[in-house]
Amino acid sequence: MIKDLQETSYLFGSNAPYVEELYENYLEDPSSVDDKWRQFFDNLQNSPASDGKLGTHDVAHTPIIAALARKRVSGVVGHSDGELEIARKQVAVQSLISAYRFLGSRRAVLDPLRRKELPKVPELEPAFYGLTEADMNVTFSAANTFFGSEKMTLREILDALRQTYCGTVGYEFMYVSDPAIRQWWEERIENTRSTPNYQAPEKKKILEKLTAAEGLERYLHTKYVGQKRFSLEGGESFIVSMDAVVEQAAEYGIEEMVIGMAHRGRLNVLVNTLGKSPKELFSEFEGKYASGDLTAGDVKYHNGFSSNVVTKNGPIHLALAFNPSHLEIVDPVAMGSVRARQDRLNDPKGLKVLGVLVHGDAAFAGQGVVMETLNLADTRGYGTGGTIHLVINNQIGFTTSDPRDKGSMTYCTDPAKLIEAPVIHVNGDDAEAVVMATRLAMEFRNTFHKDVFVDIVCFRRLGHNEQDTPSLTQPLMYSKVAAHPGTRAVYAEKLIAQGVITEDDAKAFAADYRRQLEEGTIQEFAPSISAKTSHTVNWSRYNGSLQDRVHTAVPVQELKRLAEIITTEPENFKVHPLLEKVLTDRRSMKDGLINVDWGLAEHLAFATLLTGGYSVRVSGEDAGRSTFMHRHAVWHDQNRGTWDTGIWIPLEHLSPTQGRFTVIDSILSEEAVLGFEYGYSGAAPECLTIWEAQFGDFANGAQVVIDQFISSGEAKWGRKSGLTMLLPHGYEGQGPEHSSARVERYLQLAADDNMVIAQPTTAAQIFHLLRRQMVGRTRKPLVVFSPKSLLRNKAATSPMQDLSEGKFKEIIGETEDLDRSSVSRILLCTGKVYYELAKRRQELAAYNVAIVRIEQLYPFNQLELNSQFEKYPNVSEVVWVQDEPQNQGAWSYIQQRILAAMNVGCRLGYAGRPSSSSPAVGYASKHIEQLKTLLSDAFGPLKGLIQIK
Question: Residues in domain Transketolase-like pyrimidine-binding (predicted)?
Answer without folding.
Answer: 596-793
